[in-house]
Every structure is written in C-alpha cells, then in structure tokens.
Amino acid sequence: MSTIQYKSILLTALVLPLTTLADSADNMRTRFDRTPAKKILVEKSKRRLTMVLADGREKNFRISLGGQPRGHKWRQGDSRTPEGTYAIDFKNVDSEYYLSMRISYPSEEDLRTAERLGVKPGGQIMIHGYPNDAQPPYEDYRNRDWTDGCIGVSNTAMQEIWLAVREKTPVTITP
User: Fold this and answer.
1) By three-state DSSP, how is residue 9 classified?
2) Is pLDDT at 124 greater than 90 in this prediction?
3) Half-sphere exposure of 44 (CA within 13 A, CB side)
4) What pLDDT is stored for residue 96 in this prediction?
5) How far is CA 171 from CA 121, 148, 153, in A?
6) Contact between residue 138 and residue 158 where contact means Cβ atoms under 8 Å apart
7) CB 106 within 8 Å of CB 125
8) pLDDT tens digits for 23-47?
9) Are strands 100-103 and 84-92 parallel, antiparallel or unpaired?
10) Which pairs from 21-25 meet CB under 8 Å and 24+ separation?
C-alpha cells in the first residue's frame, strides 16, 4: 500500500465519524421546536407544565413535585413547590439534574411571610430533568412526586423546555 493510499484511508477513518457526529447534532437541533417561550404555567393539581410559545401555540409536559405537593411553600425543607408569579432567573447546565432553570422564589412577599413566621423561606426552586446519576428505566421518576419542592420533568421534556425558555420568562404556579 502506498503512503498516499494509507493517508487517504486514515483520513476517511477519522473524518467519517466526525461527519456522523455533526449530522447527529444537527438532527438534535431540528428535532425540537425553536420557537421561544412567552410564558410557563405550572398547574400543580394537574401535574402539568404548559409552555406558551411566542406564536401562541402551547406545549404540555407531565411534571413531578415534592413530597408535600399541596399548598404554597412557606419554609425551607417543607418539600412544597411555591405558588404565585415568578420568573426564570438562571439556567444551569452544570446541575446535579439533567439541566435546570431556577425560579425566582422567594419573592418579596414570600420573604415577608417567612420573616413574620420566623422561618427561612428556602430557595433554589428549579425546573429540571432526572438526577444525573439516575439509570434507565426511569420508572422511579415517572408518575410520582420525587423532588424536594422543585418541578421535575423527563429529560426529553427538559431539552425542549431548555431550548425555548430564556431568563426572565414569566412562570405562574397554581395550586
């Protein structure tokens, strides 16, 4: 085999996997809708997150909540998800969960209530996917409440939500 033939085979062996990887990344980008979200509505009793897109369409996702899903979050460690109007104030790719977006809890009103009750309000309420160390099948996470007060969704749902939501996107959480 000549040196030119050898280099040609070597180059093909190196470039082919890279083009396949690039094609795969392009497929991932086009697989999800790229329309930005205008707002998010979380209905705790229905275990549903509705993402309203800028063009008026809605996308619905099944959610999981904390161990005490009923009622508003009053204090740190109560395993409740807050209720009210907030916004996404931070997106975290380096999370213990598959992507996470922080909700702007506690609000000024939440802080006043916690102070009046003499408790810490808690914080770090997120919308996130499954824990990074979770192993398929994900039956332990589907159709049950497993968070500490956050809003859990499947990893596939989190990808779609992550791509559409920007910081400052309004989030309304209802009972």
Assistant:
1) helix
2) yes
3) 23
4) 95
5) 19, 19, 15
6) no
7) no
8) 444 444 446 678 999 999 999 999 9
9) antiparallel
10) none
Place of tokens 């000024």: 108
Residue range 50-102, pLDDT digits in tens: 999 999 999 999 999 998 888 888 889 888 999 999 999 999 999 999 999 99
Query: In this structure, are strands 100-103 and 126-128 parallel, antiparallel, or unpaired?
Result: antiparallel
- What CA–CA distance (Å, rounded) separates 108 from 148? 22
Pairing of β 37-43 and β 170-174: parallel
Is the peptide bond preceding residue 137 cis, with omega within 30 degrees of 0? yes
Question: What is the rounded distance in angstroms from the CA atom of residue 17 to the CA atom of residue 61?
Answer: 34
State the Cα–Cα distance between residues 81 and 62, nearest whole angstrom. Answer: 15
Distance between CA atoms of residues 40 and 29, nearest Å: 22
For CA atoms 130, 133, 139, 143, the dihedral sign is negative
